User: Fold these one by one.
Assistant:
Number 1:
Amino acid sequence: MRIVILLCAIFYIATASEFAPNSACKECHPLIYDEYMSSQHSKASIFKDEIHAAVWSKHPKNIKLKAYGCAHCHTPAASNLKELTAPNNGVVPDVNNTTHTDGISCAYCHRIKSISLGAKRNKNILSADPKSFFGDSNISKTTPFHTVIVRDVNSSSSDICMGCHSHKKNKFKFNVCITTMPKSSDTKSCVSCHMPKQSRESNQTARFHGFAGINSYAPMLEEHVELGFEKIKDGFSIVITNKTPHALSLHPLRVMQLRVSVDNKALKSVNFLKLIGSDGKPTPPWLAKEVVLNSVIQADESRVVEFTYDLSSKSKIDVVLGYYLVNPKALKGLGLEQSENVKRFRIFKEQSFKL
Ligand code: HEC
Ligand code: HEC
Ligand code: HEC
Ligand code: HEC
Ligand code: HEC
C-alpha cells in the first residue's frame, strides 16, 4: 500500500510540470488545431520565427551566457525550462525536442489559472493537474482525455494573455514592451478582438485560434481602426482613430506607415513608431534606457495628419495604412535584409475618399 502511494506521489511530481503536446489535441479538436497551427503562437520558437531567431542570435544572453530566458514566454511548455533558462550549462533550444518547437502550446495556455504581477515581467499561475484545462464553460466536465475545470468568477479573460503580454523590463529596469490592460469598463477584451467567436461547419460557435495579429489574419482586426478624411484650409487631413485599448504597433521593432496619394500622385509617407535606446540614439532592446522617439498612435487616440495640397473639385484620395514587421533601418543589423517575408510592406487597411 505504502509503495503504491509513494509511486503515485513520484509519478505526480514527474508529470506535474509536463504539458501534453499540441499533437495530442488534434484528433478531438481538429478545426481549432488547424487554426492554431497557422497562428504566431504556434510559431513562437527560434525554429519557426526568423525575427525572434535573428534577435536571439545577437542577444548577450545567447552570446555570453547561453541562457534562453525568452522561453518563459516563447516556449513556456519546455520540458527542461529551468535548465534552458539557466546560464552556461550546455542546455540550449533543441530542434528535436517538440516541447521546444511547440511554441505557446495548447495545454500551457489552457492551464493558466491566474497571473502574478511582477516588476520585470508578470508570471502565469497554472492549474496543478496537467490534464485539467480551463475553458469558457461554467460547469466542470470530464472527457476521455482530460477534465474541463471552471475559472474563478473574478478573473478577467484578458488575464490569460497578460502573464506574457503585459510588459518586459531589461537589466536597466527599462520597459522594452508594454501592453496596456483594457479598462474594466471596456466591453472588449483581448479575447473578444483577437479570438472572435466563429461559426463553424459543425454549427458550433468557438473562439478563433489563429490569434489575429500583425503576422497573420490582420484583416480580421481592421474594423478596430478607422480612417477619416477632412478638408481643411490649404489642404486636407487624414484622421486615424484607434478603437483598441492598446497603442498601435506594440512591438518596438515595428514601423506603421501611412501612405496617401491624390489622383495617383504619392505624397510623402508618414511613420508611426517607437524607438528605444540610450543617449538619444536607438539601441538594441537589451541596451535601451529610454524612449528616444514615440509617435505611435495611443489607445483610444484619434491622430490627425495634415497634408498641404491644392485639391481639385474631383480629386480622389487613396489612403493606405500598413506596416513593416521590422524597421527597415534594423534589417541589416539583424541579417534579415534577404527575407522577403520580413521586408515586405503589409497593408493593414485601405480606403478611398472622393470630393
Ligand atoms: C479524446 C478526445 C479529446 C482530446 C484528445 C482532447 N480533448 Fe479537449 N475536449 C474533448 C471533449 C469531448 C470536450 C467537451 C466538449 C463539450 O462537452 O463541450 C473537450 C473540451 C475542451 C475544452 C473546454 C471547452 C469548453 O467547454 O470551454 C478545452 C479548453 C479543451 N478541450 C482543450 C483541449 C486541449 C488543450 C487538448 C490537447 C492537450 C485537448 N482538449 C484534447 C475531447 C478531447
Ligand atoms: C515576458 C514575456 C516575454 C519574454 C521573456 C520574451 N518575449 Fe519576445 N515577445 C513577447 C510577446 C508577448 C510578443 C508579441 C508582441 C507583439 O507582437 O507585439 C513577443 C514578440 C517578440 C518578437 C517579435 C516577433 C515577430 O515575429 O514579429 C521578437 C523578435 C522577440 N519577441 C524577441 C524576444 C527575445 C530575443 C527574447 C529573449 C531574449 C524575448 N523575446 C523574450 C513576450 C516575451
Ligand atoms: C505564454 C505566453 C503567452 C500567452 C499566455 C499569450 N501570448 Fe500572445 N504571444 C506570445 C508571444 C511570445 C508572441 C510572439 C510570438 C512570435 O512572434 O515569436 C505572441 C504573439 C501574439 C499576437 C501577435 C500575432 C501576430 O500575428 O502578430 C497576438 C495577437 C497575441 N499573441 C494575442 C494573445 C492573446 C489574445 C492571448 C490571450 C488569450 C495571448 N496572446 C496569450 C506569448 C503569449
Ligand atoms: C494563447 C492561449 C491559447 C492557446 C495557445 C490555445 N487556446 Fe484554446 N482557448 C483560449 C481562450 C482564451 C479560449 C476562450 C475560452 C476561455 O476563456 O478560456 C479558448 C477556447 C478553447 C476551447 C473551447 C471552445 C472554443 O473554441 O471556444 C477549446 C476546445 C480550445 N480552446 C482548445 C484549444 C486547442 C486544442 C488548442 C491548440 C491546438 C488551443 N486551444 C490553444 C486560449 C488558448
Ligand atoms: C478593440 C479590439 C482590440 C482589443 C480589445 C485588443 N486588441 Fe490587440 N490589436 C488590435 C488591433 C486592431 C491590432 C492591429 C494593429 C496594431 O498593431 O495594434 C492589434 C494588435 C495586437 C498585437 C500585435 C502587435 C504587434 O506590434 O505585433 C498584439 C500582440 C495584441 N494586439 C495583443 C493584445 C492584448 C494582449 C490585448 C488585451 C490586453 C489586446 N490586444 C486587446 C485590436 C485589439
Number 2:
Amino acid sequence: MTGQRTPTPSEHAANHLVRAAVTAPSLHNSQPWLFAYSDSRVLLYADDTRRLPLADPRGRQQVISCGAALFNLRLAMRHLGFRPTVRFFPDTPEYVPLVQVEWGAYARMTSDETLMHRSMRRRHTHRGPFQAASVPASLIEALRQQAHAEGAGLCAMDDPTSQLRLAALVREAEQLRRNTPAYTAELNRWTRVGDAPRDDGVPAEACAFHPDCTALAGRDFTGLTRHPDTAAPPWKWSTRTGITVLLTTPHDSRQDWLRAGQALQRVLLYAAGHNVAAGFHTQPLEVADLRARVRATVPSGQHPQMILRLGYTNDRVRTPRRPVTDVLARDNGLRPTASTPARWREPRGPARGSRSPAQEVTCAAPPRPGTQRGAEPRG
Ligand SMILES: Cc1cc2nc3c(=O)[nH]c(=O)nc-3n(C[C@H](O)[C@H](O)[C@H](O)COP(=O)(O)O)c2cc1C
C-alpha cells in the first residue's frame, strides 16, 4: 500500500473542467485565475497577484481573461454532457469569487459546441502577417452572431477610413508604451526569453515577426524597437494585416468584462474551428483618453473591450500554462490564495452570501455560415 489518495469523481471532473479553462488566452499569458471545487460547483476567482498594475490598473483585462477561461469551463462541462448553471457575483470587494458554475441538466452537445470544443487546443494568438486570403464576410457575420449570443457586439472595421483611424490610435498607444520605462519593465517581466523555466508569460518564439510589420502596431515583447539595428521592420506587410474587429459591450461593469471574455473566447474558438486565427492589439484600450477615441469609432456607441485582427496562417506556437494543481483547490468555504492552493485564508468581505439570480447557460449557437478558404501563400 502506498497511502496514495484516490481522486474522487468530483475531483476528476473539476480537473477536466479546469484543464480546459486554463487554455484560455490572458493578458501577457498572466493566467490570472484560481478555481475551487466541491461536489456541486466550481468557483472562479481572479488572482489579484497576477494583475498587471500598469497595463491593467482597473483589472478589466484580468476579468476578460477570466471570462475567456469561464467560457472554456462551460464548454468542457457541455463536453461531459451537462448544462452549466452560471451565477455571477456582484462587484463587491476582491475576496468574492467572480462566478460559480454548477452542474445543470443533461443535454447533448450541439454541433457548434463540438466544433468549438475541438478547437480549444488549436487556438493560439498570432503575431505577424496573415496569408493573402481574407476572411469571408459570411464568417465575420457568424462571428458577430457568436459574440451576440454572449451579450457582446462585434464590429468589423472594413472601410479604409476607420481602419486608418484605429491603426493611428494603436500606434499612438504603443508609442506611449515604448516611451514609458516602467511599462517596458512590466512587459519584460512577462516575456520569457531563452530557456527560462517558466510556465507563464509570452515566449520569444511567439514573437517571431517584428511588431511593426503589419498596419496595426504590436506590443514589443522582445525589445526589437529599442535597438537602432532592429528598430524598423525589415519588411512591412500592410496588406496582410487581416480584418480588424472590435468586441464591444453595452456597459463597462465587471459583469460586462466577464461577458466580453466569454464572447471573446467563443469568437476565437469558432474562428479557429474555421481555421482563422487572431492577433490582439489592445494597447489603446489601456489609456482612458485613447479608449474614448476608439469608442467614438464604434457605430453602436458601445464600450470597446478588445481589438483583434483575424486571418489565415499556418504558424502555430504553443504558449505554456501552469499545471492545474497550481490553480485548483477543494472548496472549503475560504478563498484560495495565489499560486498556493493548498493554503487558504479567511475571506474579508461579506461576499459569500451575496447572490445574483442563477442563469442556465448553454453554448447554443446561431446557424453556421458557409465558409470558404482561399489560396494560402505564406506571409
Ligand atoms: C485581455 C487580453 C489582452 C491581450 N492583449 C494582447 C496584446 O495587446 N498583444 C498581444 O500580442 N497579445 C495580447 N493578448 C494575447 C495574450 O498575449 C495571449 O493570449 C497569451 O500570451 C497566451 O497565448 P495564446 O493565446 O497563444 O494561448 C491578450 C489577451 C487577452 C486575454
